[in-house]
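subagent[fold] <- orchestrator: predict structure for attached chain, return tokens only, no commentary.
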Amino acid sequence: MSAQEIISELAKLSRSELERVDVRLHQLLGGNGDEQVGRRIESFLDGARRLESRGAVDAALDLIYDQVDEMLKAGKFDQVNQLLSTVEANSLSLDLLLGLLTVTLPARCRLPARSRLFREAETVLKLRGEWEEGLLTGLEN
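subagent[fold] -> orchestrator:
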């Protein structure tokens, strides 16, 4: 398939599908090691934020779930832990924070940085006035 044919096919994709293509292109074009992981993390979280800002919260959560779940299934716990150690709770909405904590819950024992994010999320949500009793119940470490 030629580059022109690929480009014409991209116009037929949904926003969520295009975000996934973007992540994959970054993987293919990027470096390797930590630099590539950092770009991938930045790319899909930025993509999730963009989707959410356009009102596509479900698509944003799907992107987070798909990307993190893919890494966990591949045994890339170090990459997911890096994500959790670098993300700042105040940079994510309530929905995206809950999504990230939810998708990483099954692997919490292998993700030491998750407990920091959990504590930071609780603090940030209280400061923003979004805290409700029981909001994070079941998501703790």
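orchestrator: received. Logging for downstream: The chain is about 70% helix and 0% strand. The chain has one domain: 12-128.
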